[in-house]
Amino acid sequence: MESKTQDLITECCGSFMDVGAVIAEDDNVLVLPIQAESEPQARARFAELESQAKGRFETVQSDAQWQADTQTLMAKLVFSCAAERLIFEMQLN
Q1: How far apart are CA 69 and CA 6, in angstroms?
Q2: For the chain, where are the alpha helices, taking DSSP H only?
Q3: What are the sequence ranges of the domains in the chain?
Q4: CA distance 87 to 41
Q5: Could you report the per-residue pLDDT of 65-77, keeping only the tens digit for each?
């Protein structure tokens, strides 16, 4: 398997950054550990996030597994590319 690295140096506000060092092409999965008192509460919160993601990027895929011992829903949103994941993640904060 061949590994290719692309360096794109970008200037923004007087600073320079290697975009490839910030955004990896295959980094398209957002893992969301959602803690809640119950599985239905966690799934309701994830449904909101999933709806937001699919409203913005229609090809988003999702998966979630409830972990009863930690009261955590381990949720995943899989975007078609890293840029979509990054854009969605930035709007969460």
Answers
A1: 43
A2: 19-22, 39-56, 82-92
A3: 25-92
A4: 26
A5: 999 999 999 999 9
Q: Which of 26, 30, 41, 25 is nearest to 76 (CA)?
A: 30
Supply 59's token pair: 């090809």
Dihedral angle of Cα 23, 29, 35, 37, to the nearest 10 degrees: 150
| Residue tagged 């890293």 (tokens) | 82
- Residue 75, Cβ neighbours under 10 Å: how many? 22
What pLDDT is attached to residue 24? 75
Smallest CA-to-CA distance from 4 within 29, 22, 25, 27 is with 25
C-beta of residue 11 within 8 angstroms of C-beta of residue 49? no
Rounded CA-CA distance 77/93 in Å is 16
* Type of residue found at 48: E
The answer as to CATH 3.40.50.10070 being correct for domain 25-92 is: no
